[in-house]
Amino acid sequence: MKATVWAGRNSVEVQSVPDPKILNDRDAIVRITSTAICGSDLHIYDGYIPTVKHGDVLGHEFMGEVVEVGKAVTSLAVGDRVVVPFPIACGACSACGRELYSLCENSNPNAGMVAKLMGHSPAGLFGYSHMMGGFAGGQAEYARVPFADVGPLKVDDDLTDDQVLFLSDILPTGYMGAEMCDISPGDIVAVWGAGPVGLFALASAYLLGASKVIAIDQVPYRLELARELGATPLNFAETSVLDELRDITAGRGPDHCIDAAGMEARNGSTVVDTYDRVKQAMRLETERPHALREAVLSCRNGGTISIVGVYGGLMDKFPIGAVMNRSLTIKTGQCHVQRYMRPLLERIRSGEIDPTVIISHHLGLDEAPYGYQIFKHKQDSCTKVVLNP
């Protein structure tokens, strides 16, 4: 089969790789009809995620048709149309019992590897390095889905792939980012990053009762899309984010701040931006925490910082003093996708959410290298690339 594989820093290729096979009785094989390039994939593309090897199949947002099931899978049948969540979860461990599916205790066969960096291992993830399990991803024609009796969500044909594909990751991730804020009616929410997750976070904040959402980015077409979704756009390259947020909130700061930017955030200050880029390049820190620093310093006293942008290791100059002295609450996590898929499916069906608004490009699988290029470099007004094998 054909698949998108990592070929070195800033390089992916579409190559022929072996077809996936059933390896466990709880496996299923899915013929992929739609998959997508995620902002998290760019961290791999840029070379910042350790334990990625040449030839690894990328991608963790995918859906398709079940073509084979293991003997223990009774909840799926050949021919079922499914969306596959990006965290792999067993459904039986302590974490899964608490619906903390991205912390599954049984799905990462390389748990010892990641525990050396993080203390304990989270769940295995599709297409996201060997320390996260080494599972082949979904930017391919077929994928093996472990624990298929737990993860995949069956969907009817009344909704298109474009409407339901993002239930695999970014829609639940954005929603969880807003949900972790415990928004009360009338609250003001600021979102750093107007990429796909940030856009879904701001839309979800409104669904949960926010009165105003401010979207912070520097890419004009992304800020314009945020405006169309009801947010107040703020270009960090043109103004002081801290000053603007104080002005908008009468000096108090936003009630809740969502970091949807993560480890490769940029900053309007050339000095600060250069400082972190140099330290990251020299491996003296693994993150560029501009967005998170601003979120902490901007948030009102007693407010909430919600982090759904991906971080992988260590950062420098984190303002912990502000967090402690100003009674800020930090909530974060890889999304527990399985918890949100069905409720969000119903919101899509009812018309409360239209995930298709973020799609800018449909490409064939063979065009994946081009898709990565335009997504990374914000070319051709690219907000989200969907690949159709």
UniProtKB/TrEMBL annotation:
Domain called Alcohol dehydrogenase-like N-terminal: residue spans: 25-153
Residue intervals of the Alcohol dehydrogenase-like C-terminal domain: 196-264
PROSITE patterns in alphabetical order: ADH_ZINC
Protein name per UniProt: Glutathione-dependent formaldehyde dehydrogenase
Cited Gene3D superfamilies: Medium-chain alcohol dehydrogenases, catalytic domain, NAD(P)-binding Rossmann-like Domain
GO molecular function, one term: oxidoreductase activity
Cofactors that this protein relies on: Zn(2+)
Similarity comment: Belongs to the zinc-containing alcohol dehydrogenase family.
Alphabetized InterPro entries for the sequence: ADH-like_C (IPR013149), ADH-like_N (IPR013154), ADH_Zn_CS (IPR002328), GroES-like_sf (IPR011032), NAD(P)-bd_dom_sf (IPR036291)
Keywords noted in UniProt: Metal-binding, Oxidoreductase, Zinc
Any single Pfam family the record assigns to this protein: ADH_zinc_N
